[in-house]
Each structure stands twice: as C-alpha cells, then as structure tokens.
TrEMBL record:
Parts of the chain that traverse the membrane: 101-119, 150-167, 179-209, 221-240, 283-304, 311-331, 337-357, 364-385
Organism field: Thalassoglobus neptunius
Entry superkingdom: Bacteria
Predominant location category: membrane
Descriptive protein name: Uncharacterized protein
An annotated GO cellular component: plasma membrane
GO biological-process terms attached to the record: lipopolysaccharide biosynthetic process
Keywords annotated in UniProt: Cell membrane, Glycosyltransferase, Membrane, Transferase, Transmembrane, Transmembrane helix
Molecular function in Gene Ontology: pentosyltransferase activity
Recorded topology in the membrane: Multi-pass membrane protein
Phylogenetic classification of the source organism: Bacteria, Pseudomonadati, Planctomycetota, Planctomycetia, Planctomycetales
InterPro entries named in the record: LipidA_mod_glycosyltrf_83 (IPR050297)
Intracellular or extracellular location(s): Cell membrane
Length: 501
C-alpha cells in the first residue's frame, strides 16, 4: 500500500484507464438506447428536475410488466443509480449519453480498484497492470459501463467492501472503522441493486469466521450489519411515500423472477449454474469465456504451488464470487452480474503470472510480456468494440452515426402535436423534445385492449425485430437513415393503418 502511494506505482494504472475511456466514450456518446435503458435512463433526469425517479412515458397497470405505475415512481430496483445520474443531468444535456456517464466513470474506477487489489494482495506493478488491463478490455466491463444500468455501480461497492476488510497481516487485527466502512459500502451497494447480497454474504462470513472470541465475532457481525442497514435505510422515505409501487414492482421484478428460494438455490446450485452457463457464453463470448474459465483454475493452482500467503484468501473470494453470483441471481436473465467475479479472476491471473513478468532473466521477462500481449490481442480484440469505437471517433458528431443528433433532425421535420409511440432506441429523446410520448412495448402485456390514439410510431430496435408495430395496427410509412453498418442510425416511421385508408 505504501509503495502504491509513495513510489509512483499508481501511475501505471493510468494506461489501461485512458485506453478504456478512449474506447468506450464514443459508444456512450453515439449509441441509441439499449437494453433496459428505456426505464433506467430517464429516472435520473426526473430526479434532477422533479425529485422523484419515474418513467413518465411508461403508463401501465399490469403488475406482470414489473413497471406498474412506474410513471408515478420507479421501484423495480433500488434508486441509487438515479441519484448518481441526477448531478450529471444538472450540468449536461438530457439524453442517453448523460445517463450513462456514471457507468463510464465507474468503469474507470473499477480498473483502478483492480490495480489496487493486485497490489494489496502482494503483487508488483507488473501484475497489477496486467490484471487491470485484462479487466479494461473485457466484455463484461465494456457492456456494464456503456449502458445505463445499476449493475456496475453495485459491483464497485462490493469490490470496495471486500478490499476494505482484507488485511495482509496474519493476526487479523480487526479495526472497527474498517468494518463500518465495509458495512456502509454493502449498504450503498444495496441501494444500487439487490445483487449486493453477494458481497454482503462474503463480508458477513468473513467477519464471523475470522479469529477472535465469540463475543468479538458477534460484535463484528452486528457492526457490519448495522452499518449496512443504516445506509440502506436511505431508501425508506421513498418506500413509505410509494408503498404500492414498491410492492408491485420490486417483488415482481426481483423476488418472483429469481426462481425457488435462496436457501434451496444455495443447497442445490446446479440449476442456477446450468442457467448461467448459457448467459456467460453469450456475455463473455466464446474466447473470453474460455480464457477466464481456464485462467481462474490455472492461476489459483499456480498461486497454491507458489505457496503465496494470499492464495487461500483469493481462492475463497473467487470461489464464493462464482458460486454466489449464480445462486443469488438464480434464474434472472441479466448477464451484467458476472462482471463481479471477473474482477477477482483478473486479479488472480495477474498475480499468478507475476514470476514470469518480473523474472530476473531478461529473455524470460520479454518473452512473457510479448506472449501476454499476443494472447491479449487474439482473445480481447474480437467482439471488443474496437471497430465501433473507431467509426465513431472518425465520424464524431455526424448525425449518420450519432443517435441523439440523428433523431433530433428527424423530429425537426415532424409535427409536435399528437401522441408518439417509440421503442427503447429513441423514446427518451422524443420525450425530451416535449412531445406526448408513450413507450412502445408488447401491447397486450403493457396496455391490454386500451385504445391508443397515436399519430406516429417510431422504432429502430426491438420493436422492429419483434414486429410490435403490427400489434398497434401500424403500417410502415417511411424509413429514415440507413442500415449499411451496425453503427448507422435509422428509424422506421409508422402511422395508424386507418390513416392511410
């Protein structure tokens, strides 16, 4: 730790952070709305302007959508993300890019924490730089840092909590201040996402199982729990004000979707692992999934063979992270949770390769470094977003590739009167234009047979793929933009079928 702060070692972590920021900023700025951003982007704007997180263009009474009365208050997940987004909306223009900014900076912080973790577990700057670089170019960090979802901010709290509790000393001289800070981070993580239960369990078991009398263990456990609860209680005023929305949205979205009870999943994790294997394969991609899977096993074996003092602790952290991520998430379809164990696997791989990266034999050191670079290029370049970043940088701000500017130009040619239906891609932008807006989703599920007298339906993403316009009796009027590449902006404009009869 002293070496990190006083010896200038920390400067090495700037390299992967700068590269990460340069590769991900263009995606954050230019891309249209993506997964779940239709509900996780606008609440930050409403907090900044109204004080309450809500989705004003999503008006539904169906609990099965997970968003019943979300136009009054969004309670499907804890609101921490929205309050972190609000300051950005105070100084930057409204839109998806601003909603993503906390996640982009969160990704930078995650890389710095990974570097710090490798140092804290006994690694040198070489191992720390390698670990941080693995995380910086990984697909899990890419996806969680370019979309307005709370996953990454929750994970940051978890990594911070575990690193706060960890001490390299053998006597485990527990400091109550560290326990309070770790508990507060656990509580803050809970304000972002219920996934915080994973690192709450890790920290809880840690403070209870560590050396000490029964009284000391109970005291540590209570201190951790009370600290976490005190921070988590910040959500209580919103729950008291909107109890119906909390009951209908949070339970439908989180509790009901996880599958059988947590206890049964912990005792029988096989169904959860089977479910998440497919998600991991898709989320990481085949190359990175294989690399991190085999890398975790290989690196832990190397550390144990080297008889490092931290091997046991790292094995417990990595193993429990993998086990708890699958079982706590259960049958939930979200993939972003897996960035949490990815962080620890990166640290482990970096530490395991340290003897080769720092070998006294110059030839071994150079060959190891060269091999690491080559393997990294082969595994991390495919599917790493480099092509998209390059196109966006070369065409920075061009409406052909800039979703926000593109839809603004489209709307300039359209009337302001009438109801606009829009899918995830542009619904936030259309709402900010001042037009009456309703989110285009599966009609029967979200709106039943209610009459929706819309004037235009604009779609470019899932609505087109799933042919939702047909459910609204809409027919294609025109297409603006092109679909030559995945980075090109386009939108299909539909009108009610009766308007052309």
């Amino acid at each position: 730790m002293t070496e990190l702060l006083s010896g200038g070692t920390w400067k090495w972590c700037v390299i992967p952070i700068v590269l990460f920021f340069g590769l991900r900023l263009p995606l954050v700025v230019h891309q249209a709305g993506g997964q779940d951003e239709q509900v996780f982007a606008v609440p930050g704007w409403t907090v900044a302007n109204e004080g309450v997180p809500r989705v004003p263009y999503l008006v539904t009474d169906n609990r099965a959508t997970f968003y019943q009365n979300a136009d009054r208050c969004l309670m499907a997940l804890p609101p921490g993300l929205f309050y972190f987004q609000a300051p950005f909306f105070q100084v930057l223009p409204g839109g998806y890019p601003t909603a993503r900014m906390p996640l982009l900076f969160g990704g930078c912080l995650a890389i710095g924490l990974c570097f710090f973790a490798a140092i804290r577990f006994g690694g040198g700057w070489n191992a720390a730089l390698f670990a941080a670089s693995l995380l910086a170019f990984s697909r899990p960090l890419m996806f969680t840092s370019i979309l307005a979802r709370p996953d990454l901010l929750c994970m940051l709290c978890g990594w911070g909590a575990v690193l706060t509790l960890w001490t390299p000393s053998e006597d485990w001289n527990w400091n109550w201040k560290r326990i309070v800070v770790a508990g507060a981070l656990c509580g803050l993580g809970g304000l972002f996402h219920p996934f915080a239960l994973v690192f709450c369990l890790q920290c809880g078991v840690w403070v209870l199982a560590a050396k000490g009398s029964s009284r000391e263990r109970i005291t540590r456990g209570c201190l951790l729990a009370f600290s976490a609860a005190a921070v988590l209680m910040l959500w209580l005023p919103l729950i008291v004000k909107f109890p119906q929305e909390f009951q209908s949205q949070f339970f439908a979205n989180v509790v009901d979707r996880a599958g059988p009870g947590l206890g049964s999943r912990l005792l029988n994790p096989i169904p959860s692992f089977r479910h998440h294997f497919g998600l991991i394969w898709e989320f990481f991609g085949p190359l990175q999934a294989a690399f991190f899977g085999f890398g975790a096993i290989f690196s832990l074996a190397v550390l144990f063979r080297q008889r490092t003092s931290h091997a046991g602790a790292l094995a417990m952290i990595v193993g429990s992270s993998l086990y708890l991520t699958a079982t706590v998430a259960g049958m939930h379809p979200t993939k972003g949770y897996w960035v949490y164990p990815t962080f620890w696997v990166c640290v482990t791989i970096g530490l395991a390769l340290q003897p080769w990266l720092t070998s006294n034999t110059v030839r071994i050191r150079y060959l190891s470094t060269a091999a690491a670079v080559v393997v990294g290029l082969v595994i991390f370049v495919p599917g790493g977003g480099l092509r998209s970043a390059g196109i966006y940088w070369v065409n920075w701000g061009d409406p052909r590739f800039h979703a926000g500017k593109f839809i603004d130009q489209v709307l300039e040619e359209m009337p302001e009167e009438g109801l606009y239906l829009a899918d995830t891609s542009y619904v936030f932008d259309i709402y900010l234009s001042g037009r009456e807006t309703l989110l285009c989703q599966q009609r029967e599920l979200f709106y039943g047979d209610a009459e929706i007298p819309f004037r235009y339906l604009l779609a470019a993403g899932e609505a087109v793929q799933d042919e939702w316009p047909k459910q609204y009796g809409a027919i294609l009027s025109t297409t603006v933009g092109t679909q030559v590449t995945a980075q090109d902006c386009f939108v299909n404009i539909y009108v009610p079928s009766e308007s052309v009869e």
